[in-house]
Target: Pentapeptide repeat-containing protein
Amino acid sequence: MDHPKITEEYLEPASFFDIFNEEDFFLSNKKLEGEFVEKQIIRHPIIEQTIFEHVTFSECDFDKIELTDVIFKGCNLSNCFLTEASLYRVEFQNCKMIGVNLDKSYFNNVVFKNCMLDLSNINEANLKETSFESTSMKDMSFNENKLKQIFFDDCDLNKMTILNTKLKGIDFSSCRFETIDIEEFGIKGLKVNSEQATFFAKYFLEIKVSY
Model:
């Protein structure tokens, strides 16, 4: 997996509102820290080689946002609309993203690490070389997605909904859930641990397991 190509010492301190200085809503080679961005609506903003650190986006709508070589550290993007986003070499580290909407987006070399994605939406998306690491994904909607080289490590998947999505080759064994809404055809080729296998046996086959 490729990481964002950023040389931090060459980044210029900036404000998110500098994006309005460009007619095409463009930010590049910037570092933004400790900023509060509220109720902004921008269609197709383009951000490249930029680090966001402890930035809060509140009730923002960035439809068709395009991110290339971008890192978010300790940011809050909860309830933001990022529909039809294009993410290339993007990392979210220790970010709060509850209820974020990433429907119909394209992911290529994207990392979510120690994030909160509870109640979020990633539907009808195309995900390639994307990893979810130590991330909470409770009550998340993850439907009708195309997946290629997707990794889950130590994630909370409780009450997650995964419909019309093939999970062949994916490994859930290090993750946890009490219940999950999933289709039988979707779990073919999915790697699970013994506890998860017992859950699916009960869920699909109504098998009673004795111990």
